[in-house]
Amino acid sequence: MKTQKLPILVILALVLAPLLSSCGGPSKIDVALTTYKITPSSDTAKAGEVTFHVHNDATDLTHEFVVFKTDLPEDQLPLTAEGIVDEEADGLTSMGEVEDVTPGTSKDLVLNLEAGNYVLVCNTDSTQLHYSHGMHKSFTVK
Ligand SMILES: [Cu+2]
From the CA of 11, how far away is ligand 1's center (Å)? Predict the structure, then answer.
């Protein structure tokens, strides 16, 4: 009996180890902001703690970074009368944001995200309406 149990345990360990290591641990996403584009290092993350390391690579404008949980298409979020994304509207939930990321600087945003669909947005209206100028990117948490 003992001689048969041991190989099974070894096989279980070999199968489980990679599974466990792939589902634990926080995700870290680098997010580059430029005028007018958001470029994350990955468009997916694992559910749990996600750190967005947001850096403004633009030389001209200050940007911000907002994470919305929503099933809406990234370019069809509800807008306010002023033309920015309506953060209070039905169909989306603001999960958190960093504001006033000046050119050449960075800020970290640490969020606890469940599996689902998200949209990353710059919702600034300085000079132009940044969202309407393309500062949005869909993001999936699995
Ligand atoms: Cu912006």
Answer: 51
